[in-house]
Amino acid sequence: MEVKMKSLSLLTDLYEYSMANGFEQNLVNDQAVFDVFFRKVPDDGSFVIVAGLQQVVEQLVQLHFNDSDISYFKGLNLFDSKFLNMLQNFEFECRINAVPEGTPIFPREPLLTIEGPLIQAQMVETLVLNILNHQSLIATKSRRINFAAQGRPVMEFGARRAQGPDSAIFGARAAVIGGCSSTSNVYAAKQFNIPAAGTMAHSWIEAFDSELESFQQWARIYPENTALLVDTYNVLESGVPNAIKVFKELKGEGHAPIGIRIDSGDIGYLTKAARKMLDDAGFYDAKITVSNALDERVITSLLQEGAPIDNFGVGEKLITSASSPVLSGVYKLAAIERNGKVIPKLKVSGSREKVTLPGIKKIYRLYKIGSAQSFADLIALNYEEIGGEPLSVIDSDPLSVGKMHVLRGYRAEELLKEINLTHFRSNDVFKIKDYCQTEIGKLPDETKRLTNPNRYTVYMTEKLANLQQRLLKKSAN
Questions:
Q1: Same domain, 308 and 355
Q2: Spatial CA neighbour of 312 closest among 428, 175, 451
Q3: Per the domain annotation, does 237 fall within a domain?
Q4: Given this model, what pLDDT does residue 5 score?
Q5: Tag placement on the chain: N or C end, fewer CB within 10 Å?
Q6: 392 and 359 housed in the same domain
Q7: One domain for residues 273 and 373
Q8: CATH number of 175's domain
Q9: What are the E-state strand segments in 119-229?
Q10: Which residue, among 250, 211, 180, has the nearest Cα to 430 in the 3D structure?
């Protein structure tokens, strides 16, 4: 489903435009290649789920500056008239290569590249990072939570705790890409064709003279959607017994109750006791849904102790990725094309982890011949031929020992795809979710663990490693 976004042309840091203004006066004919990548995975995980490409493309193709924008820029007294005229007649001319949404990606791998006029490529840095960092963060957290749920449906419940409306809307989209089955956010449900989920709040029960009456009235209005919140007063002494009474009334009228939700207390103990009460009353199919500040650690603990939970509603700790709330994706210059010559570029740092990989690159997922499970990824220069021939590679982790390896008997699947900006149309969010599950399934099991996952190797080719070393030595002179 296509979703129209408002233009965010001014959602940027001022220095993007200050630099672009300077480039207009000095390097106006230069072309550039920028890479988007990250160095660290949230929650000490192994990989990140890429999300947000649809919104990046939508923003870039409609990038423009209206009269009000130009007037504002003039008022800053920073910009040359030639630059302002360029903005007034702006058309985005850059090319984009990106991994498909839902792809698991590892540190230092370019997940998106932008190639085109230096001025334009520089201007869009903040906007691109804002979208990709947010949605990829939430999709990654969702993957962790859904992994912990072991196939049980997880409903995204976080709109009221999100940092603003856009975070709630696009966070719900990203949560589904990462594995969620539905959302309580009606706006996101409509926009992205996601099932809307939810029943009642405690205020519904409190508004009536008794809990039983509130349940009965709900069942009268929604006989086919009777999921009752049972923890307003006392789960086991009041909530579940009253729910059972209403379920019996519904059954007598030919309706099948959905179940109960518990939103507080000792979830493990209460679900076990509630399950026994429901089963003793003959309601074996009544589902137990739990919520209340859940995350992957709490869910794992509950299931390990045998809590009979059928569904999870996860809110604030998903929509904000509360335990690790930042994906520090970066946007770094990799090459300049000047007078027909490509000049690789490299950022040097006192920290080895922050030294970038130069040049125009491709990334590959590597499989042993005859195997559907990958064993490593590879970053290569774009002109290198990657195939079944022996290939000299080195671990791209800057903290590795730097030992050279020779790969044999492998097949390589290229991950970066050229995006047709004019005709780009994202898949349905559930198709992206299915693709995500398929791609995760190709990774080694030990890479998927929530705690102490095994590090998945990302190699770089010998040619790329040598180029990086040459540029490092040159920078030191």
A1: no
A2: 175
A3: yes
A4: 57
A5: C
A6: yes
A7: no
A8: 3.20.20.70
A9: 154-156, 182-183, 227-229
A10: 180
